[in-house]
Amino acid sequence: MQNICFFNTAKAWGGGEKWHLEISTYLHNKGYSVFVFAHVDSELLKRLKLNNVPCIGISISNFSFLNPFQHLSLTTKLRKLNISTIIMNLSRDVKIAGPSAKKAKVKRIIYRRGSAIPIKNSFLNRYYFKNVLTDVLANSEATKKTINANNKDLFKENKIQVIYNGIDIKTIQKNHKAPIFTLVNLGRLEYQKNQRFLIEIAAELKHRGLVFKLIIGGEGSLRKDLEEAIKKLNVTNEVELPGFIKEPLSFINKADVFLLPSFWEGFGYVLAEAALCKKPIIAFSLSSNPELILDKQSGYLSKVGDVTEFSDKIESLYNNKDLREQMGLTGFKHIIQNFDKKIQLQKIQDYLIHE
Known about the structure:
The protein is α/β, with parallel strands linked by helices.
């Protein structure tokens, strides 16, 4: 019996945490031996317990890898659990859990990379990638390309596997029409997600005379900054910040068009959800976005930070309901054909479990 360990010390809830929850729960329910280490105060740990997945809460900081006692404690736990494969989430997880797993003689030490940001060519990274990790699992082709972007010899390319996040096509929602043209964005209110750009878009659309609502769902550290920007740009009647969204698909279904101005995405899961809801999408032409959005077919890919171009694409959809519906249907078909959760879960199982 193989014992699979998932190691994720993120406190906030995001795409990586969703992935770790879904995969560990899936394997556990199929009868495989699974154990998860998660941050003691995280949403992930709460949901793992609700799903009855074996887990333990731990507290890890960015400097925990310098603490020999934490290394020893974790090594002991991994040995006791007889872990054969470990999948780590954050770079700090690699630094603490990677060497501990190696000392515990864990056979497969996997870094699940979910962010399409080039890895720094530092001494520590060269050490971990060459001496500790056995495999890297990437969530998109864009993410894979960033692994060796700054050092072509950092990690063997044939040991980097791409498996997309899957989306549950059974959760298809009925299309609800809003009484006013509605733009929707969903994501953490953090720098990466770049919602400040959307407020500038709202000001531009208002200047052009469009009648609309922009609803930015999510919570985060930049809420106050965004609220101030909304007042400063005089779009308080056009922009809403409803906070954390419990039911993403129902929320997305309020939209006529879905917007994503992120500076980077490993795998834009929310883009797959928007396409599943048959919404045309406008996003920047970067990271994995072109893998999820068929430019000029299921939506538009725009230059990064170009308010005029982004607004032009919104206005073209504002004036053409038939095009919105056509693009939404094309995106829906693309997701169904390429990102079916059932197929992706089987790929993950085959990747992690070697009978």
